[in-house]
Amino acid sequence: MAQRPYVIDEIISAKQIAARIEALATEIEREFANTDKLVVVGLLRGSFVFIADLVRELDLPVEVDFLEASSYGNAMESSREVRILKDLRAPIEGRDVLVVEDIVDTGHTLFHVIGLLQARKPRKLRTIALLDKPVRREAQVKADWTGFEIPDEFVVGYGIDYAQRNRNLGYIGKVRFTDAAG
Ligand code: IMP
Ligand code: MG
């Protein structure tokens, strides 16, 4: 895909994200208060910054695992097909599991991952997404916790990329194209 020129407009600051994660962590601690050990599953790659900050706010015994599902490639359109590129290292049967996603967009990725993991018979499976674009939804799915609902904009930063760039921004911004077609 040819790279068009763009700028990034901040829509959620690092400070807002940190405050929201603190509040979400409190709710998650309550939900899993009696767990022996919570398996926190990050969906690669977009959730790596979120999961890092989230687990450090969780006052619970946790272990961390990762799963990589593909739906995007390098383009800005989501495809319906979801493939597992990297599976969990550990079995989750009988375990408490929290799936951590960066963005729920069409919902196909989260829907597919929930189905896959439920089939492994965890004791309790919950999901959290930093961002949700409800107007884009195609699959019937909603994360148990959401950081922020956002409109139908393409966003980057805080782990989230556009063509593998901008994951290292501390904030969430929306991509605004600056060429004639934008
Ligand atoms: P879904 O299967 O359509 O819900 O897509 C979810 C995945 O698409 C997310 O985990 C992201 O990796 C990617 N995605 C969706 N919206 C955006 C965006 O605005 N910026 C970057 N990646 C996105
Ligand atoms: Mg993703």
Would you kindly provide a written description of the structure presented here, covering whatever features stand out?
There is one protein chain. The protein has 182 residues and is of the alpha/beta class. It is built from three helices and nine strands; from the N terminus they run E-H-E-H-E-E-E-H-E-E-E-E. Helix 2 (48-57) links the parallel strand 2 (38-44) and strand 3. The longest helix is centred in the N-terminal third of the chain and has 18 residues, at 14-31. The two termini are 16 Å apart. The structure holds inosinic acid and magnesium ion. Residues 43, 46, 102 line the site of magnesium ion (MG).
Taken together, the total number of domains comes to 1
What series of H and E elements makes up the topology?
EHEHEEEHEEEE
Alpha-carbon distance between the termini? 16 Å
Question: What ligand molecules are bound, each kind once?
Answer: inosinic acid, magnesium ion
Topology-level CATH name: Rossmann fold
What is the average of the pLDDT values? 93
**Classification by helices and strands:** alpha/beta
Number of separate strands: 9
At CATH level 2, the architecture is 3-Layer(aba) Sandwich
Largest sheet strand order: 4-3-2-5-6-7
Unreliable runs: none
- What percent of residues adopt helix (DSSP H or I)? 10-25%
Oligomer: single chain
Strand content: 25-35%
